[in-house]
Structure of Endonuclease III:
Amino acid sequence: MASAAEEASAPVRKAAAAKKVTVAPKKAVAGVKGAAPARAVVHPPGDESRTALVRRARRINRELAEVYPYAHPELDFTNPFQLVVATVLSAQTTDLRVNQTTPALFARYPTPEDLAAANPEEVEEILRPCGFFRAKTKSVIGLSKALVEDFGGEVPGRLEDLVKLPGVGRKTAFVVLGNAFGRPGITVDTHFQRLVRRWRWTGETDPDKIEAAVGALFPKSDWTDLSHHVIWHGRRICHARKPACGACPVAPLCPAYGEGETDPEKAKKLLKYEKGGFPGQRLNPPQAYLDAGGKPAPPLGAG
């Protein structure tokens, strides 16, 4: 017969057992060729300390840097003007679609002065494949006029100036600052928001609050590359509806492991191949590896 002390301790033992968490199997990282497998660790509990969170977040970024060493903006551009326009056009469409559209746009309107003076109907016809083409036409012509009238035809290199341009919010501004001017910034797009919440870096839902919360976990110098790593991972592996958990290189560090397919072979079929090559490939120099039909083509030098 159990003593009173033993009976009193039983709920404690049950509570402790309830807190047991699942460890992602090491084979979960096998689906990404070339990735350095993360060491198996216990998924963080809900009471993870601030120090532990910082360490885990930075380790995830280091692992992703190994998988995507050449992560970069997937919009084609040759100058800050082209980048800001392309980023505005990328809303609610794919970067691939924007890259198929902007050559004709920039060939006809190569400078802010040209686009500011453009016939809206002609611009709409060029931008029609991007979706929401009327609103986007209004934005790119409007921002071009603002560049000419307020900034001498040059894209400003300050956040407070960029967000004054039509169609430009903080997300677009940080893309431009980080990739055209080398000034650190966090790009909080839909992929970034989804992944940092899955990883429990923050529970915030407002993009500005997410930016602040995640920024506090990393040195400022890491912000731009961090954004690329997270966005690339969200596009290729950690999808919104069906993440490829069994092929994820950071599965052992992810509190949401198991939300998606955990079988490695099935998970590999969920991987998406986009600009920049296949997940886990170390590509140099970075460039598109898609054929004319938008399907993955062999990397340069292959076969």
In short: The radius of gyration is 23 Å.
